[in-house]
TrEMBL record:
Residues 323-566 form the Xaa-Pro dipeptidyl-peptidase C-terminal domain. It comes from the Bacteria. The keyword Hydrolase applies. This is X-Pro dipeptidyl-peptidase-like protein. Keywords: Hydrolase. It holds the Pfam family PepX_C. The keyword Hydrolase applies. One of its GO terms (molecular function) is dipeptidyl-peptidase activity. The lineage of its organism: Bacteria, Bacillati, Actinomycetota, Thermoleophilia, Solirubrobacterales.
Length: 573
């Protein structure tokens, strides 16, 4: 079927603002359901509008596709771009507008990846009557937790990359004009991003002239740094707490090495348990691949590991998977019974259908930290002195792999951790060689009994696989700022120096088979920079610090204080 493309279509909002869109429609006289994508990255950018669903392919199969610039971006009205603020109301208005355009049959689905996926969720939370379904990949549900801040630490690497490297560059090109001042600011932004680590290491980093000068057009960087505990600012921008109003089912797409993994898992858990309609609770689906953020969904490898061509979103044909499911919700196809969850099991390198997430046929298994760097299923049976190290925020442990959204010089995904193993501020605990395969499937957490000489500090834990060739490959990781150890992100608690406390570090989740002949390895340290801001150990938020203090760290591994990592596994011990 031929496809007609109409550009610069005006979409009126309730407050008089006009957003602009490109509309793809079948070249016929029929009426069709509408697929709506709302993006801050440019409606004409194929790199961001074609990753999950190809609009021309969708139009050729009988859909009207609307791709819209969100408020304040590219062709749409708005003097500045304040992420997430307008997407509830603008999403509602856009869905209702799309339902009534020529060639539409009144039924609408929203979709998107990353920010566009979040905007799709926000539209669903606003409950426009015409909305029938949501397909969202790698999107956030909480503007505080795991977006701006993870475990209480500022997501510095992602914000420098996203706000300065992506948003500010385009905003300056849109609003800055062609004068010498505009060109100078553009050059300053480029320099700040290219000199990434030096930019992040400035004290205080939010005093950067370039950051201050772009915040009028992209205020999110300064605002995110200023709001260092969860509050009204974050609730106004979050889907969290609003699932009870949602009636449309959702198809959630996530990646094991994606920066939004935990958000996607919370999306799925909430829509399945809290949605207002039975349809939303029963028909929502989750797919998790071994992917990094964005275009990494279409790759067959991540970091330094190849998972086979069958792991890629291209081989999976994400477009067909999503459009077929959307058509079921839009009434164009008879609903088919699908397993609600489909995950890629790394190591085994195969897809597996699950009845739920976490899988109900798994059980907890604890691996304990012991003296002499051992990791064992046996709890500590004797009094062992604590492991000690000095954390100096002036010489932080560098970022090596993981679920990153940072410049390409920082490799995303599973990466050999050897470069940091020799550091004196990294504790290493290694299991014996596994006698049989170990399948891990579900959330991963670490319980550290630890003490610091400082009034605040960070704890970083990585779960890794030690290969026979000597490489240590990261599987998942987590960070916890000590003052948020109680889990209330709105109410930090002071730390008394040298007091032994229990810290619960969330390493998110994984699905992997660690084969016989390999080993498990756990790394413990106090920084992952510049992915996260350094904790200055002074009680001052790292992004506002003007001085740094070293801290003596102790991690306990004795009978009364058995530090350990908790996995969910399948099969026997």
């Amino acid at each position: 079927m031929n496809v007609l493309i109409e550009r610069d279509v005006e979409v009126p909002m309730r407050d008089g603002a006009v957003l602009r869109a490109t509309v793809f429609r079948p070249d016929d006289d029929g009426e069709h359901p509408v697929l709506l994508l709302r993006t801050p990255y440019g409606r004409d950018s194929a790199a961001t509008t074609h990753t999950a669903i190809d609009p021309e392919r969708a139009a050729a199969s009988g859909h009207v596709v609307v791709i819209q610039d969100v408020r304040g971006r590219f062709g749409s009205d708005g003097a500045s771009f304040d992420p997430y603020v307008h997407e509830f109301d603008d999403g509602y208005d856009s869905v209702q507008w799309a339902a009534g355009i020529p060639g539409a049959d009144g039924r609408v689905a929203t979709y998107g990846i990353s920010y566009a996926g979040t905007a799709a969720w926000q539209a669903a939370a606003a409950t426009p009557p015409a909305l029938r379904a949501v397909a969202a990949a790698q999107s956030t549900n909480d503007a505080f937790l795991d977006l701006s801040w993870r475990g209480g630490a500022f997501n510095w690497g992602m914000h420098l990359t996203w706000v300065l490297g992506t948003l500010a560059l385009a905003q300056q090109a849109r609003d800055g004009g062609d004068g010498a001042v505009a060109r100078a600011l553009l050059a300053e932004v480029v320099t700040a991003v290219d000199a990434y680590e030096r930019t992040a290491a400035r004290l205080p980093p939010d005093g950067l002239a370039v950051a201050a000068r772009v915040t009028e057009r992209v205020p999110f960087l300064a605002d995110a740094m200023a709001h260092d505990r969860r509050g009204a600012y974050h609730r106004a921008r979050s889907v969290a707490g609003r699932y009870g109003a949602i009636t449309a089912p959702a198809f959630v797409v996530a990646g094991w090495y994606d920066v939004m993994l935990s958000n996607d898992l919370r999306h799925f858990a909430a829509i399945r348990s809290q949605a207002r309609s039975a349809v939303a609770r029963e028909r929502s689906r989750l797919v998790i691949g071994p992917w990094t953020h964005g275009p990494g969904m279409l790759a067959a490898s991540a970091g330094e590991v190849s998972f086979g061509i069958g792991s890629s979103g291209a081989a999976l044909d994400l477009h067909a998977m999503l459009v077929d499911w959307l058509d079921e919700q839009l009434g164009r196809r008879e609903p088919i019974e699908h397993p609600p969850v489909r995950v890629f099991v790394m190591g085994a390198n195969r897809w597996r259908a699950e009845d739920a997430w976490p899988p109900p046929d798994t059980r907890e298994q604890r691996w304990f930290l012991h003296g002499e760097g051992r990791l064992s299923l046996e709890p500590p049976g004797q009094e062992t002195p604590p492991a000690r190290y000095l954390y100096d925020p002036a010489d932080p442990c560098p970022t090596v792999g993981g679920p990153l959204l940072m410049p390409d010089t920082y490799r995303r995904g599973p990466v050999d951790q050897t470069p940091i193993l020799g550091r004196e501020d990294v504790l290493t605990f290694t299991s014996d060689v596994l006698n049989g395969d170990l399948e891990i499937a579900g959330p991963v957490g670490a319980s550290l009994y630890a003490a610091t000489s400082a009034v605040d500090t960070d704890w970083v834990v990585k779960l890794c696989e030690l290969l026979p060739d000597g490489r240590t490959i990261n599987l998942c990781d987590g960070i916890l700022r000590a003052r948020f150890r109680g889990g209330d992100w709105s109410a930090p608690e002071p730390v008394r120096p040298d007091e032994v406390l229990r810290y619960e570090v969330d390493l998110w989740a994984t699905a992997v088979v660690v084969p016989a002949g390999h080993r498990l390895r756990v790394l413990v340290t106090s920084s992952d920079f510049p992915r996260y801001d350094r904790n200055p150990n002074t009680g001052i938020v790292g992004v506002r610090a003007t001085r740094l203090v070293s801290a003596e760290q102790r991690v306990f591994r004795d009978t009364e204080r058995p530090s350990h990592v908790t996995l969910r596994i399948r099969g026997r011990d």
